[in-house]
């Protein structure tokens, strides 16, 4: 009986260690001290900085930054609506489907759409990380006419 208990204990310890190791195996850049500050939500002044981008041109970065400044308020209860508004603005300009996530924990970003997206942007906005990523459906062809 003790060998079964010992096996279960070892299995549990291994699983726990594996989970902790997997959480911290991705690098998420930090906001620099000299980030430019913006007035968001007509009330709050926060720093907004592009931390990472993949597959996106400067035009995409500029539109995303303007959408964040226009819609992001730092009020957690309205973050779902803010994400929807930012995504809608990206879809109007560039087409396709855009996922927008507002994260208060930087490690959550690494386990989202970034693994399968053809282009994404990661912004630091105050104490939050805002991820904008274009959804590429299975079998879809990447557009050669859009400004990416």
Automatic annotation (TrEMBL):
One of its GO terms (cellular component) is dynein complex. InterPro entries: DLC_sf. One of its GO terms (biological process) is microtubule-based process. This is Uncharacterized protein.
